[in-house]
Design goal:
Residues 1-12 have low confidence and may be disordered. The protein starts with 7 loop residues before the first helix and ends with a helix. The protein is mostly helical. The longest helix is centred in the middle third of the chain and has 27 residues, at 68-94. It has helices spanning 8-33, 38-54, 68-94, 114-126, 152-173, 176-190, and strands spanning 102-108, 130-136, 141-147. It has a three-stranded antiparallel β-sheet with strand order 1-3-2, covered by helices on one side. Helix 1 packs across helix 2 (38-54) and helix 4 (114-126) crosses helix 5. It contains six helices and three strands, in the order H-H-H-E-H-E-E-H-H.
Length: 191
């Protein structure tokens, strides 16, 4: 047997790593059709397999670690952030005396993981008042368009908020190594 021949043992870890993507695509299919039936599930699995076969993406390396407490903290603070962001944007729109002000800011992230960077970008984009315009993967920088900016202090507040989201996501879903890197970066920022 040569090194290039797939084996049954080598096949299953690859399938296991792609299982979360398969399940997510199947769920997305069912949500798009608005049906949670056996037929929708089976056609979703077929559609997910076709998408994963045609659009070959590198396997997503999950850490396999979920801290339930910090995941709960993330979900609760995210929901509160949605409400606060919605109210803030609504007040800025209704205040006819003052323009809300906008800026594009660069936020260098502290973790070196594509999945954590993507989750941070999505979280920041979902909260009203900010939108990720670009992500520099090599330098780990998110570029956000934010509203409600009138001073340097407002810009720094938006940067700190983005880094706080990154920290919450890393605590909930990051590996132990990523947590150590985050702690070192936070200690370096304090000194």
């Amino acid at each position: 047997m040569t090194d290039r021949e797939p084996t049954a043992v080598g096949f299953f870890p690859g399938v296991w790593r792609q299982l979360p993507v398969l399940l997510w695509l199947t769920l997305l299919w069912m949500l798009l059709w608005g049906q949670f039936t056996l037929l929708a599930f089976l056609t979703g699995v077929v559609a997910a397999v076709v998408v994963m076969s045609v659009f070959r993406l590198p396997p997503v390396e999950l850490t396999g670690r979920v801290n339930v407490w910090y995941a709960l903290v993330f979900v609760v603070t995210f929901l509160l952030g949605l409400v606060r962001g919605s109210l803030t944007v609504a007040l800025q729109v209704l205040d006819v005396r003052r323009q809300p002000g906008a800026a594009v800011i660069a936020v260098p992230l502290r973790t070196d993981d594509d999945l954590l960077m993507a989750h941070t970008a999505i979280t920041c984009s979902l909260i009203p008042g900010s939108l990720v315009m670009d992500a520099d993967r090599d330098r780990r920088i998110l570029y956000l368009h934010v509203i409600g900016v009138h001073s340097e202090a407002d810009i720094e507040a938006h940067r700190r908020e983005t880094l706080t989201w990154e920290a919450r996501i890393t605590r909930a879903f990051g590996s132990r190594e990523q947590l150590q890197r985050l702690r070192r970066a936070q200690e370096g920022a304090r000194s």
